[in-house]
Amino acid sequence: MKQMKCLVVIPVVLLIAGAVTPAGQERKVDLSQLSDLIETAAKENMPEWKYSRGEPVYKGEHVLISALSSGDKRVRVAIVPHHSQAEAESALHDYVRRDKRYKKLDDFDLGYSREFADAQVVFKKGQLVVFVGITADESSKELVGINKQFAKLIDATLPN
């Protein structure tokens, strides 16, 4: 029930808080605000999971790098905004084209997975490309389920 509450609350909070502009306009994503909203929702709905934010490899990149962890479990998330939905779709297609192990996922409007039982998920949501994954040495059936659960949560969180 807490997960369903989170799936409903986060998109509404994002729109009210103004993390993005309404559909149809070019969106300017405030990654700090988006990060804060995701962290708050995780604390409220999944208190056993701790949210942390990292830094991009190259300073100045407009990328959200974060992780959710609980005990020895860790799910990594990267969100890359693009100037338009078409640009995001093109970037996603270019990315998955480089690795033939990606398979299309039905759980997302435009999403792909690879590795053991969907341990790496990448999808497009509006002008954003989102990467959610666990490392290979963490690939257990339980963690893969958690990884995909977080991918779905993030998909429901982000605006179209």
How would you sum up this structure, described in words?
By secondary structure, this protein is α+β, with helices and mostly antiparallel strands. The protein has helices spanning 2-17, 31-45, 85-97, 141-157; strands at 50-53, 64-70, 73-81, 103-105, 111-114, 120-125, 128-133. The chain has four helices and seven strands. Strand 5 and strand 6 form a beta hairpin. The longest helix is centred in the C-terminal third of the chain and has 17 residues, at 141-157. Mean pLDDT is 75; it is low at 1-27.
Radius of gyration, CA atoms, in whole angstroms: 15 Å
Task: Give the tally of β-strands.
Answer: 7
* Quaternary structure annotation: single chain
| Distance between the ends | 24 Å
Low-confidence stretches are 1-27
Taken from the alpha-carbon principal axes, the silhouette is: globular
Number of helices: 4
Q: For the report, how would you describe the main beta sheet?
A: 7 strands, antiparallel
Structural class: alpha+beta
Content of β-strand: 15-25%
User: Strands of the largest sheet, in order across it?
Assistant: 1-2-3-7-6-5-4
Question: What is the overall pLDDT average?
Answer: 75
Question: Which series of helices and strands comes N to C?
Answer: HHEEEHEEEEH
Helicity, as a percent range: 25-40%
